[in-house]
Write a structure and sequence with these properties.
4 domains; four-stranded mixed sheet; 21 strands
Length: 484
């Protein structure tokens, strides 16, 4: 949400009108070499004080709030001859959004930073988090109770309700949003006039109105934008599809960026990915036919999952789908909220519940908690290795592998597939047995001992256990996941 000149001057007057310098507002006359530390401190302080933004203003006298002007130039260079603003943004983690405005006020030149409040994660600069205590900047680690508050505090405004574009006329709203797709996907008749369209978008909270102007919410923009890049705070949230030549990233064949809103572009995105996938030729009923290497339903669910569970506070990155010759990697920003071992049969926690609910209404994704289950069912049906769930420092990645024979699978592959097979059996109200595992891996009955060895290794790993430890019958033994 970028402010125009009038809004900048109104905000400056409001900040100057504060009775004293607060922990979320800092006034300075000229540049400070600790600029990045102040951005961290003000973002964290804004979170603690339930403010949507923190502010750092140059050209204002600290005690009197009088405009004295400043020589500070935000368009200067930082270390390594890198431009200052991108240098600051790169060293902040998470990469929170901030804006810098230059106001040529008649009393003197003012430079104003508006910094988004931290959300659930303290903001660091060059690996260190800071906080404002009174009028002083301190290391956050010295105040563990304040750090704990940031980790546990709920955001004052949910991401979906935040404003992506404001001060819009009706025609501006209709140009920015693909409203016909909304009515089509909801199976609703398109109103005959603009007023009817606008009223329905307001009811869905895709837009809001204040006085005579409109705003588009993040929910409206991220789902129904004609072009996401026309919303500055969301432009890096477009979905990228990258196709590589071979098993590594050495050579890129092509890269596609889906610029449409997630709802508008979803079906086309899934079709595009499916079109790029290799095929296998099989003989069925004496007829040769080609089948895709990966089930389309699994691709659909995993892409929807990446969209819904991404952490929008991770700036500068969005969902990414990478296609290799032997696997597909689907990555979304943000650590998972639950342990990756519990992705199956666990009531999921969602960062973006309104987004998830809307996408369920549009039939883009499954009911809560059933998406990953369907992916695993598809992998077993297509005799694919088990997907791999990876928790990174600031991302979640799911890897879908192409077909491997049991001989080609390593020990980790077999244990993972066995654990997830046990999970699926519990979901279905059954228990895993030697026989069900043989069917999962395509092992002939006479080779039951191979399945027994895999079961034994998986028990040793701690991922499964005997359903009835007191039973002495190995032939009829049943197994369940460690958490069952």
């Amino acid at each position: 949400m970028i402010m125009n000149e009038r809004e900048q001057n109104i905000l400056l007057s409001e900040l100057r009108g504060l009775p004293a310098e607060t922990e979320w507002v800092e006034f300075k006359t000229n540049n400070d070499q600790k600029l990045g530390e102040y951005l961290s401190a003000l973002s964290n302080a804004a979170c603690i004080h339930d403010k949507p933004y923190g502010y750092l203003v140059f050209g204002i006298e600290d005690k009197t709030h009088r405009i004295v002007g400043t020589d500070f130039d935000p368009n200067t260079k930082a270390k390594g001859n890198e431009d200052l603003i991108p240098w600051l943004a790169r060293l902040l983690n998470p990469r929170i959004h901030f804006e810098c405005y230059i106001l040529n006020h008649f009393e003197g030149r003012v430079v104003m930073f508006r910094i988004k409040a931290a959300t659930n994660t303290p903001v660091t600069f060059q690996g260190l988090a800071f906080i404002r205590i009174g009028s002083y900047k301190k290391r956050l680690s010295e105040y563990p109770e304040k750090e704990r508050l940031i980790w546990t505090k709920k955001p004052t405004v949910q991401f979906e309700n935040e404003i992506a574009r404001e001060n819009l006329k009706v025609d501006d709203v209709l140009k920015l949003l693909d409203y016909p797709s909304y009515f089509d996907m909801m199976n609703l008749p398109l109103p005959s006039n603009k007023e009817g369209i606008i009223e329905k978008l307001k009811q869905e909270r895709l837009i809001s109105k204040e006085n005579s102007v409109y705003s588009i919410t993040n929910l409206g923009a991220i789902l129904f934008a004609r072009e996401i890049e026309r919303f500055e705070t969301l432009e890096r949230k477009t979905i990228r599809v990258i196709i590589y030549d071979g098993k590594n990233k050495r050579k890129t064949i092509k890269e596609q960026i889906d610029k449409k809103g997630y709802a508008v572009g979803f079906e086309g995105l899934v079709d595009y990915i499916d079109d790029q996938l290799p095929t296998n030729e099989i003989i069925d009923s004496a007829l040769r036919k080609e089948v895709k290497m990966y089930p389309k339903l699994a691709i659909r669910e995993l892409v929807a999952n990446a969209i819904i569970h991404q952490d929008f506070s991770e700036r500068g990155t969005g969902p990414m789908i990478e296609l290799f010759s032997d696997r597909i990697e689907i990555t979304n920003p943000g650590k998972p909220l639950i342990n990756t071992l519990r992705f199956v049969d666990h009531n999921p926690q969602s960062r973006n519940e309104k987004l998830a609910h809307f996408m369920r209404r549009l039939n883009i994704c499954e009911e809560r908690g059933s998406g990953i289950d369907k992916v695993l069912f598809e992998c077993e049906f297509f005799q694919l290795p088990a997907p791999k769930f990876i928790e990174g420092e600031n991302y979640t990645r799911i890897i879908l592998y192409s077909h491997k024979t049991l001989r080609q699978m390593d020990k980790e592959d077999k244990i993972s597939a066995t654990y997830l097979h046990a999970c699926l059996k519990v979901v279905s109200g059954e228990n895993m047995t030697n026989q069900s595992l043989r069917e999962r891996f395509g092992i002939e009955e006479k080779n039951y001992s191979i399945a027994s060895r895999i079961l034994s290794e998986t028990i040793k790993s701690g991922l499964i256990k005997d359903y009835d430890p007191e039973s002495s019958s190995k032939k009829h033994a049943k197994y369940v996941p460690f958490w069952a």
